[in-house]
Structures are given as C-alpha cells and as structure tokens.
Amino acid sequence: MKRTLQGLLVLTLAVVLAMPAAAAEDKKKKKKKRGRRAPAAVRVAKGIELTADQKKQVAAINKEYAPKLLELNKKARTIITPEQRKARSAAAKKAKADGKKGKAARAAVNAALNITAEQKKALAELNKARRVIFTAAREKFVSILTDEQKAKLPKKKGKKKKKKKADA
Predict the structure, then answer these.
(1) Taking each helix axis from N to C terminus, what angle separates 82-97 and 102-113, rounded to the nearest 10 degrees?
(2) With DSSP H G I counted as helix, E B as strand and the rest as coil, what are the percentages for the chain, rounded to 5?
C-alpha cells in the first residue's frame, strides 16, 4: 500500500512539473505560426457592426488593394538599408524607454536614421502612393456603409486651421 502511494505521488509530481513546460512549448508554436499578415487597406472601426454582405465587400476591397500595399512595402524596405533599420529600431526602443511619445519620439528616430536626400524623396513618393491607395479604398468602404454606420465613423484627424482675427 505504501509503495503504491509513493508511486502515485511521484507520478503526480512528474505531471505537475511537466505541465508548465508543455504549455510553454505550445505558446512558442503559436508564436511561430503567426507571420506577417497582408496589410489591410480598410479597417472597420470599433462600434460599427457590418452585415454578412458588407463583410464580404470589405474583404474584397482589402483583397483588391493588399497586393498594391505589399508592393509599396517591399519598395520601402529596399530604400532603407539594414543598418538604418537597426538604428531605427534601437532609437525607437530608446525613445520609448525615455518616455517620449508622438512627435518627440518620431524626431528622435528620424535623427538616428541619417536618411539621405534621395531616400527622403523616394520615401515621400511611396507615402504619396500609399495615401492614394488608402483614400481610394476608404471611398469604396464608405460607399457600402449605411447612413447610421457612416455616422459612427471616426472623424478624420486633420490639421486645424487657426482663424485670424480681423482688425475692423
């Protein structure tokens, strides 16, 4: 009897110790399965419920524009050198550690990049092409929405113009 209890105790202990290791392996496998997803030209804002037909249309819009966005991303990766990418990621980590956000963080990252004038010009052209694609995709997306759904769309973040006071 005593021998059986010892055997069960050892077996239970082995199972308890093996469970966290098995769970860690499962997490590693799940992380490896994730890859880069195709970029989405249109993302549905929170709070907007789409019908099944609208979901199909959004998927079609993303399928139409995703290859164009992938091509632009590939071009962007060829413009910036691997050394510059490493410097950018290091600068981004440092800015985050320093508590910088928004424009201050972007300025710190851009200063570390040391982009040439040719690279700036090429990146600006790519960004312009990206904006054209996103604008076209958004127009198609908005056209499939109902008036109620359109009202729930977030407002565009634009530059606010300051009104000048007239001296009259």
Answers:
(1) 150
(2) 75, 0, 25
Query: What is the dihedral sign for C-alpha 134, 105, 120, 85?
Result: negative
With 0-12 CB in 10 A as exposed, 13-18 as middle and 19+ as buried, what is 17? exposed
What is the C-alpha separation between 90 and 105, in angstroms, rounded?
A: 12
User: How many angstroms separate the Cα of 125 from the Cα of each of 34, 88, 122, 128?
Assistant: 31, 20, 5, 5
Token readout for 81 is: 């050198």
Buried b / exposed e along 27-42 (16+ C-beta atoms within 10 A): eeeeeeeeeeeebebb
Nearest CA to 151 out of 56, 65, 58, 48 is that of 48
- pLDDT tens-place string over residues 90-127: 888 888 888 888 888 888 888 878 888 898 899 899 99
> In whole angstroms, what is the distance from residue 106 CA to residue 99 CA?
12
Provide the residue count of the chain.
168
Could you report the per-residue pLDDT of 28-49, keeping only the tens digit for each?
666 555 556 667 778 887 888 8
Question: Which long-range CB contacts under 8 A does 30-36 form with residues at least 24 apart?
Answer: none
